[in-house]
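Structure in, sequence out. Go:
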């Protein structure tokens, strides 16, 4: 039997990845070893279906062997020329972190016997045409054409996969849903199921997409809105958006919306203009048609307090054509992310050797899901989501900032008051100084594992017709051992609340994001708020905390929730009649063989 060291040498590793299990590594010795040098062909010109010419870089094994290789397509608007810059991998939130080098370890894939194709999309870098932003139908179809073009290269065996993190991954499922004939499998690190909620979580605007026009080297661009609407329709929509007081308090947003024609920050302009869920978002979101994906999927979820990266993989794992093979892994926290992204390269090779080369690497013998359980930092196998053994537990918000599994018995407990102060007037916009209220459990006497989807049920009255809700689930360490750690965040715009009353499962919520229905000031409403997926052990001696505020002023100016521009009083009801609670998925036990060895 081959020694572990020799197996790891085949894939160029000095030590076994934490997410690999000794019990499922019998196929590693069959994988293609690192043996090829890399040949690069730069600025190769190809045509997509409408005749637009794209510039493409091709990386392929430099060999005289009579052998054809599978292809991997890396598609984004970040520009092809930077994807193989020689530099160390840098950590997220460090000063020199570069967000745009996301295609992955291209040279490593080629050394193991793959062709990698990286295009400049239309309107980007050296390619013709006009860029119309991220993930739309035009980009999907162009990527489809690149896949089919790659399959016809004389040194390609016709089996194509896709690589890359974030932008590169978010595009993969919507392209796969178009069913390019030569696309045989996909593997995504950071999957977004719903682009509306990526930019408007629960209807609350987050300016995350402002960065894309800066990150994408577009030489020619036009917004989808300008292509879609007549001049008068477009002007009417712009004026309606500018009438939103939260928008017109921002010089940045007002400035972009005041340009005409809207050729400044064209993608961000589209994001600003479409503040309710609509066809614009459904075109870009796999959540509307997961059943159209017919190729095997490997879904990677990072633990991230912002955006849909913790939601998308679990949605695709549980929806669509369930005859399609799929795997899911949650291997790291987003703050641990390094770019260029290399932590999952061995898993990419193992996945694609199986599906594109027909090598039994053992990867499909594993249970379908493996999760990093935070707090104890151990990997565990699971089979379904939510977990069948979940003990769904209501943690009630109680008077005095208590969070308890016991419901309040007093009907006359006064509401807890949250006073939001407009940061444009007298309020604070400092990261840790936004007005909030917190509810904490007593110090835990034993470890408590929370793994699964989370929903907040908040009974609340506001004194305005609309308001933001931001819910943060935090792990509070013992006194003197650091700040509370934010695990996951949830948002809801009050005017997007659910109006149809129906029975909900513990992980379900009931909101309508296609329109705004003003709130009657002073009226008590129940707001069901999605607080994202997580897996975390709250250790003995820690406390579980729910934090409520209007917005999260995190220190990254391109990832900030838009605060309400008016002062708002929230009356959060915590009495026996109007009970507010967060539904937590408590995991009572795990079998020993589930833990990765």
């Amino acid at each position: 039997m081959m020694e572990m060291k020799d197996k790891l040498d085949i894939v160029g590793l000095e030590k076994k990845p934490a997410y690999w299990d000794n019990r499922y590594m019998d196929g590693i010795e069959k994988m293609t070893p690192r043996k090829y040098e890399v040949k690069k062909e730069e600025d190769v010109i190809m045509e997509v279906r409408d005749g637009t010419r794209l510039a493409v870089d091709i990386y392929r094994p430099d060999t005289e062997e009579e052998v054809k290789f599978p292809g991997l397509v890396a598609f984004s608007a970040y520009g092809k020329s930077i994807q193989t810059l020689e530099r160390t991998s840098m950590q997220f939130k460090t000063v020199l972190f570069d967000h745009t080098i996301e295609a992955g370890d291209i040279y490593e894939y080629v050394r193991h016997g793959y062709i990698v194709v990286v295009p400049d999309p239309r309107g980007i870098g050296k390619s013709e045409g006009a860029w119309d932003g991220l993930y739309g139908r035009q980009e999907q179809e162009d990527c489809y054409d690149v896949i089919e073009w790659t399959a016809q290269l004389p040194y390609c065996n016709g089996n194509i996969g896709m690589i890359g993190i974030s932008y590169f991954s978010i595009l993969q499922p919507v392209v796969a849903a178009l069913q390019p004939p030569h696309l045989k499998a996909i593997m995504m690190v950071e999957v977004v199921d719903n682009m509306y909620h990526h930019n408007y979580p629960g209807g609350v605007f987050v300016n995350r997409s402002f960065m894309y026009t800066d990150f994408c080297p577009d030489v020619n661009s036009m917004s989808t809105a300008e292509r879609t609407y007549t001049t008068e329709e477009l002007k009417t929509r712009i004026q309606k958006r500018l009438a939103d007081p939260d928008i017109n308090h921002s010089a940045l947003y007002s400035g972009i919306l005041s340009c005409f024609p809207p050729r400044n920050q064209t993608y961000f302009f589209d994001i600003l203009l479409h503040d309710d869920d609509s066809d614009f978002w459904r075109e870009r979101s796999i959540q509307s048609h997961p059943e159209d994906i017919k190729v095997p999927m490997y879904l990677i979820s990072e633990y991230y307090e912002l955006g849909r990266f913790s939601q998308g993989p679990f949605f695709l794992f549980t929806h669509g054509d369930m005859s399609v093979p799929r795997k899911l892994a949650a291997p790291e926290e987003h703050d641990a992310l390094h770019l260029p992204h290399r932590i999952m390269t061995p898993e990419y090779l193992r996945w694609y050797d199986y599906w594109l080369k027909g090598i039994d690497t053992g990867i499909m013998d594993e249970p379908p899901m493996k999760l990093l359980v935070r707090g104890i930092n151990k990997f565990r196998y699971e089979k379904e989501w939510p977990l069948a053994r979940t003990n769904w537990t209501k943690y009630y918000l109680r008077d005095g900032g208590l969070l308890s599994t016991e419901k309040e018995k007093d009907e006359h407990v006064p509401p807890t008051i949250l006073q939001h102060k407009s940061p444009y007037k007298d309020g604070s916009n400092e990261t840790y100084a936004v007005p909030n209220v917190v509810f904490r459990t007593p110090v835990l006497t034993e470890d408590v594992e929370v793994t699964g989807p989370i929903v907040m049920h908040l009974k609340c009255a506001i004194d305005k017709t609309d308001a933001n809700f931001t819910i943060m689930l935090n792990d509070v360490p013992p006194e003197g051992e650091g700040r509370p750690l934010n695990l996951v965040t949830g948002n809801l715009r009050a005017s997007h609340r659910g109006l149809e009353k129906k029975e909900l499962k513990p992980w379900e919520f009931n909101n309508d994001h296609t329109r705004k229905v003003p709130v009657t000031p002073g009226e008590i409403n129940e707001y069901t708020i999605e607080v994202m997926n997580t897996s975390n052990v709250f250790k003995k001696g820690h406390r579980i905390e729910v934090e409520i505020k209007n917005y999260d002023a995190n220190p990254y100016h391109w990832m900030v929730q838009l605060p309400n521009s008016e002062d708002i009083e929230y009356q959060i009801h915590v009495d026996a009649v109007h009970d507010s609670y967060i539904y937590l998925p408590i995991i009572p036990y795990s079998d020993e063989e589930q833990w990765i060895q």
